[in-house]
Target: TetR/AcrR family transcriptional regulator
Amino acid sequence: MARNPERRTALLDAAIEVLAEEGARGLTFRAVDARAGVPTGTSSNYFAHRDQLLSQVADQIFVRLTPEEGSLETALRPEPTRELVVELMRWLARRMAAERTCYLGLFELRLEAARRPELRTQLTKVLRADLDENIRLHLASGMPGDADTVRLLYFALTGLLLDHFTVPGLHDERALDTLIETVVTRIVPEA
Model:
């Protein structure tokens, strides 16, 4: 297996783009090589098989979706209130929109995981770790609500963003902000 970490990252980023634009069926080594602008056969030097590529794509998506160092701490500085939760959820939605390709790739991986047990195991591990970290941060920062509050916010935002990215005419940016506020107001108790 090849060991150039920069090239591996470029191939994984190309795979995310292919997933987002062509779906899981379009994700081939040849398509990744073409998207990355590397010679045909390069991907197969880095990934033993397609399932390995899919699993590592899941990890790369979360690397790209991880906030910049210190940005989360800065966002959590104000008084922990329901209003702050609204702002944090809006911030999160904007971050996901900025990484739309990653988020669409993640939707494709979720669908593919329904058919591939190995990918399901890896994706479950990655998503579980992310959800657990969100719960930990919410509770540690003193935000109103409990672990179930975070789970409900997660499910609601996931659904809102699925619609927002896949059927964008369903609601506009302003409507998304309003829906986020409504969701938070109905789920998060007052402090």
Q: What stands out?
A: The chain has a mean pLDDT of 92. Residues 117-140 form the longest helix (24 residues). The radius of gyration is 18 Å.
